[in-house]
Amino acid sequence: MxxxxxxxxxxxxxxxxxxxxxxxxxxxxxLSYCVVAAQDDVDLQRLIHDPASATPPILASILPKLRxxxxxxxxxxxxxxxxxxxxxxxxxxxxxxxFAASVEHDGEFFIFLAAKxxxxxxxxxxxxxxxxxxxxxxxDDELTGQFHALLREELKGDVRGEVDDTSxxxxxxxxxxxxxxxxxxxxxxxxxxxxxIDTLTLYLHGLCCDLDVEAGPRQLPSRYLRKRLELLRELFxxxxxxxxxxxxxx
Length: 250
Known about the structure:
Layout: E1 10-12, H1 13-18, E2 25-26, E3 31-35, H2 41-53, H3 59-62, E4 66-71, E5 73-75, E6 86-88, E7 97-98, E8 100-105, E9 108-114, H4 120-138, H5 141-156, H6 165-177, H7 186-208, H8 222-235
Parallel strand pairs: 3-4, 4-9
Antiparallel strand pairs: 1-6, 2-3, 5-6, 5-7, 8-9
Helix pairs in contact: 4-7, 5-7, 5-8, 6-7
């Protein structure tokens, strides 16, 4: 269904992905985008082109057909769960509102992002979380295994804190359930996956924008966070000219 015919109606993100080919605008060989909610050139620069220019090239081999769809709003489905999130033009109630969604269609990976009334930093965070989730889910064992090994070192050293709330909660559950939290169990795998997603989200966002990590009792201590980011720099090297740490600036 073409975007110009959607007006005030709704369509599932899965159905939109199935009919989006003619609306996609290429940015690179692996990345294309589509804008359903009207944006000016300045907004497109911040929403699409700035993130694209700061994205590690290796992601193109992990996600060779990535599609970004910028929409007004996203809403939880009203009916069957299989229908998936809905692309809508009227602001949904807060209880039904979503800010991002990802689907796969015919080998193409679509990230839908709600941009209307959204702060650019929140938009970027949603984008990079979805991108990190897709990347971690499809990365090979060598990539994920090195990160998991670093997590095991932290657990054996009784390092507390995490990068974000979801990984913090999974880590807390892991520590409360296992006498040896580094043992390769389902609980460790769930925690390790989310910890890598949250840390990769921070890493990718930091390549695009200046970020401040707020200190707090749940925050991973800075020297351990630095080690994670240094490893991710090795695993996901930034584009030429993009730095990870402030002291690398010319």
